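Hey everyone, long-time lurker, first post.

I ran two proteins through the pipeline my lab uses and got sequence/structure pairs for each. Pasting them in order. The first:
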Amino acid sequence: MITRRSLFAGGASLGLSAALGVTPVRAAARRAPLSDPFQLGIASGEPASDGVVLWTRLAMDPVALDGLGGMPARAVPVQWELAKDEGFRRVVRRGTEVARPDAAHSVHVELDGLDPGAEYFYRFRAEGEISPAGRTLTAPAPGSRSRALDLSFTSCADYQAGWFTPYRRMAEDQPDLIAFLGDYIYEYGDYKYPVRDQAGGECLDLAGYRLRHAQHKADPESQLAHAIAPWVVVWDDHDIENAWAGDVPEQPDPPFLRRRAAAFQAYYENMPLRRAQKPNGSSLRLHRSIRWGEVANLHLLDTRQYRDLYACTGRSGTVGADCLERFEPNRTMLGQEQEAWLDARLKGSRATWDLLGQQVFFMEMDWTGGAGKGWSNEGWDGYVASRNRLTAAIDAYRRNAVVLTGDVHSHWAGEVKRDYADPESKSVAVELVTTSVTSAGNGLDEYPDTQNLLAENPHVKFFNGRRGYVRTRITQKEMKVDFRSLSRVTEPYAPAYTSGSFVIEPGRPQLNPA
């Protein structure tokens, strides 16, 4: 296994290459036509019991304003190797893919025929240049119950808002799988007072989205996290445009479906996704399931592309008790096809745990203190019937469901109720909300209104307002949860601390303090 010392000595490229006995130097025999093309690192994702996706994207100048990474306008053959050992003495697979200009010189190697529940190491080579090396894993075989799942998840990485230290801390834990739950990039232009300088303006076209992804991938902390374990990803709004809903944008110009198609293409080019997720213009099927033996199914949801428009106002925000549209029975967060797909997955599940990786607050949440009431119409509170259908399915199929959520830039944990109007109503699931990587700055452990919000929402059990991630260990017997927080991201290398710990037991959808 890549050791912590070798991984974190000198950054992602130097540390990983040294760990594997590989020095990423140019070929000495002749002057290489490419110069340092692996500046965006490497990644893997979408683990199955027999395979995984390997990814890289060639770039010699990550912040080139045309979004093409300073690469020549020609196809480049890229060799890849997969080994059982970190020294690449036991190479089990190798091959060549072509990095093409029309895909921003990205490479997706979709492997099958691998051993289940196995650890592998991989690297790439292009015209004499060698990439850093990464570690990846395949999922346990179907029916396997003995292999735990160490899953970490986070969301919302705004480059301008701070340093990506949470990625480094997450990598130090060496998880089996990392889930990113939306807003991997932010489409915004420049801030007035940024912590870090961002290349390019607001993302409006393919060049802009490619550039924004490239700057994120070039970050050394991001490269550490991508190199240590396979990733699974879903988007939220800022991966495309703030507060978009279905085919409706927040701002009408440029034409939204053209902008969305550009964002989808750049998203696919820069993520370790399978061919099944390759976009078709302004459409991309992102919902899918990852199976980890019989221990857990991770159902990854898309709460943006198919949702109805925001209730009552048509724009995201807080609505009061007079907003009856949010209760309309046909309103949907997921769309009919995705709802039916998820229902079938839950009904047919034989895993101990069913995890729902999604983007926006699922539990009911009254955000208005005092006698008044206020609910976010952007979260599931704006789609009550859709939430009720999913909650009823979890209950009817007797699934041990845990909802994994991003978006709100703070840690939360609570219990999903069948009837929030009845304090004695049974809990049918647990929701774990991760904070952001950087969005909203350093934050606070507790805000002045925190205790009032918790008192008015008794099913919500925990809050922390710092940046960080959530670390879990999932077995047949229990799910252990640690909320990991950092005191600051406006300066690099803050340590992580555990701000809350809980245990969830099968058959008991409640949070037990650890």
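...and the second, right after it:
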Amino acid sequence: MYLIPQPKNIEFGEPDSHFTLSYESYVVLEPSCGEKLTAQAKLAVEALKEELGFAPALTRGTGRPGDVILSQSEAMAPQSYRLTVDEKNVCITGGEAGVWYGCQTLLQMAAQCGAVLPAITIEDEPDIPNRGFYHDITRGRVPKMSFLKKMADKMAYYKMNQLQLYIEHTFLFRDFSEIWRDDTPLTAAEILELDRYCAERGIELVPSLSCFGHLYKVLSSQGYSYLCELEDSEKMPFSLRGRMHHHTINVTDPESLEFIKGKIAEFMPLFTSKQFNICADETFDLGKGKSREAAREKGVDRIYIDFVKALCEFLVENGRRPMFWGDVICGFPEMIKELPEETVCLNWGYAKYQREEETKWLADAGAVQYSCPGACGWNQFVYLIENSYENIKRMCTYAVKYHSIGLLNTDWGDFLHVNHPEFGIVGMIYGAAFSWNTQIPEFEQINRQISLLEFRDREEKFVGIIASAANQSAFGWETAIRFRELGVAEFAEDHKAYIAQQLDLLDNAEEKNRNLEEIKGAVYESIARMDSRTKGLVKPYLTAMDAIRLFNELGRVIASRAYGKNYDSLPDAWKLAEELENWLYHYKEVYRSVSRESELSRIQEIIVWYADYLRGKENLGC
């Protein structure tokens, strides 16, 4: 039997000792359980019905033999629990959050054992108190509410307790219609609904709003471009690279601070959380335009920290705990002391073998920090599962070593969030498992566990199969975007250098495509082993694998035409164009199953551009 996260202490009873959860059983809330646990017990009963086909009755009072008994104990740590199964009862005792986590353990047991549960005693609590997931809903995709709620359900199942959604412009601000008018933003009512939904499941929905850099839609608008660090930002040609690289706010204009405060003031009352993430990362243009003189006089680090400090103090004055990304301040960590002492530094690092130096520097400077690894899906059709495992494992280890108070596992949407966001569940589970219990299983072991518990693959192969797919990419989405944007003069040389580094990957593209066909066959075979609730992910995965194959072929054509590479054979370009267009039809269906329209049109535009390129259509300027 697998349990994710792995509990700290497990003792099994006698092999023939078990408890049968009967249709006549009750889930009993003892008087110690408050209103929140009452609501959560109802959710647990509904989940048990999905696993067993019947639901135990729910009541309050004193349990009897045959019941599941829930008891809240003030003597236990808030997130700890004790679960016992014997021949008479299932008993879950813990702090308020702990009882809820014990219910998730019971649900995982029922998923594998049905109604006949083995005798067991589990004592458990997390290594890291705050265990979160961070999802980009700005750069390419705005999820449907049904997807966001499903995400919250998954997080609860694996004992996570924080969720953040990355927003630049994809919220329907009342006074800033110019920045969201051509997107499909979340509304205030939807945020309120999601906040309530998360809270019921023990998850804190923490507001996250880009407040410094990464303000493309804001600072390229007619109404607010004058606040941009660079002149004439509204006249800059659009490119996916450019919108991520530029559009930092001018900190020397007093109106900038008031503008950002106004956005925060409208956004933060929608959340019950008393925390707020201002982001403040990747301020690439700071000191290079309108603030050049101030940067020369005071230093870029000074004008950076002064603006961050002003925003943090504004939040503290409004009863909120500030959070911000730590990439910039890692260059001058001693300045962390100037921020309000409760400020949380979100220390991110996404390399497969991420080093620990930044975590140490911030810890030595006295920072209160979260460690922030990545699910490693951005710019990929299939997530880099092995990379995410190694990255998250290391960042969780550093979190414990340097006393980080939280882990925030990230899933970004660089270059239009082309990947299917449900694929992020594997990386999400790694973060949940490794932050709860930093005794981390081996890669193959945890993948078998996830295959069975999450994907309901009885042969425990599914995650291993999909993990091998990303390794077959020879011409990835980012390479395709960079080739498409070679006409943007500012980044042309950088794009050329990047593409040059990737071209050798195409030498064995045909072999990789043959591997993909075998992997697809294994996915098709897995359908017979999977639960009906998880088969819906099969088509998205097969579509993504087809994308890898088609882009590998596209890359070979480009390498031949544009870079003089020679191959024994090349695909028929017109046929490949048709395949791309047919693939796009299915991709859009998959995309719309979980996402609003958002920037789907941009993805379509890129695919159509490449289909025209393959047919040799002239004048394909960027």
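Reply from user beta_strand_b:
Welcome! Quick read of the second one: The two ends are 55 Å apart (CA to CA). The mean pLDDT is 96.
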